[in-house]
């Protein structure tokens, strides 16, 4: 099972769908954000604890590798800190 990879897609449409992503600890993971509309102010994704801040061009996928060595909850939010989601590693 150690060669498995977890891949999750979050659709950004004024908010995050899903807004809670669960990952299994110890298995390499990547999260892909895809913004599909101009709605809201979610054109930038920020995962502060993971050192990620990236502009999300419309209809383009942005994929980030997530280190799952440590269990915990990591919040992500828009560039203005108004829309929220979280990554839960357990
Ligand atoms: Cu915002």
Spatial order of the strands forming the largest sheet = 3-9-8-5-6
Any idea how many domains? 1
Low-confidence stretches: none
CATH architecture type: Sandwich
CATH homologous superfamily annotation: Cupredoxins -  blue copper proteins
**Assembly context of the chains:** single chain
Helix content: under 10%
Please provide the count of β strands. 9
Organism: Lentilactobacillus farraginis DSM 18382 = JCM 14108
Pfam families: Cupredoxin_1
Protein name: Copper-exporting ATPase
List keywords for this structure.
Cupredoxin; four-stranded mixed sheet; Immunoglobulin-like; EfeO_Cupredoxin; mainly beta; binds copper (II) ion; globular; 90 residues; Copper-exporting ATPase
Tell me what the structure shows:
The protein is mostly beta strands and 90 residues long. The chain has a single domain, classed as Cupredoxins -  blue copper proteins (Immunoglobulin-like). It contains no helices and 9 strands. The protein has a 5-stranded mixed beta sheet with strand order 3-9-8-5-6, with no helix packed on it. Strands 2-1-4-7 form a 4-stranded mixed beta sheet, with no helix packed on it. A hairpin with a 5-residue loop joins strand 8 (72-78) and strand 9 (84-89). The mean pLDDT is 94. Bound molecules: copper (II) ion (CU). Copper (II) ion (CU) binds at residues 41-42, 78-80, 82-83.
Summarize the helices and strands and which ones pair or pack.
Blueprint: E1 6-12, E2 16-17, E3 20-23, E4 29-35, E5 44-47, E6 52-55, E7 61-66, E8 72-78, E9 84-89
Parallel strand pairs: 1-4, 3-9
Antiparallel strand pairs: 1-2, 4-7, 5-6, 5-8, 8-9
The structure holds copper (II) ion (CU).
């Amino acid at each position: 099972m150690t060669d498995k990879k977890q891949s999750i897609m979050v659709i950004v449409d004024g908010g995050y769908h899903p807004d809670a992503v669960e990952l299994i600890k110890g298995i390499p993971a990547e999260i892909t954000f895809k913004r599909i509309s101009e709605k809201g102010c979610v054109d930038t994704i920020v995962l502060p604890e993971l050192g990620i801040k990236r502009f999300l061009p419309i209809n383009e996928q942005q994929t980030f590798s997530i280190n799952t060595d440590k269990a915990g909850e990591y919040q992500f939010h828009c560039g203005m800190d108004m829309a929220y989601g979280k990554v839960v590693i357990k």
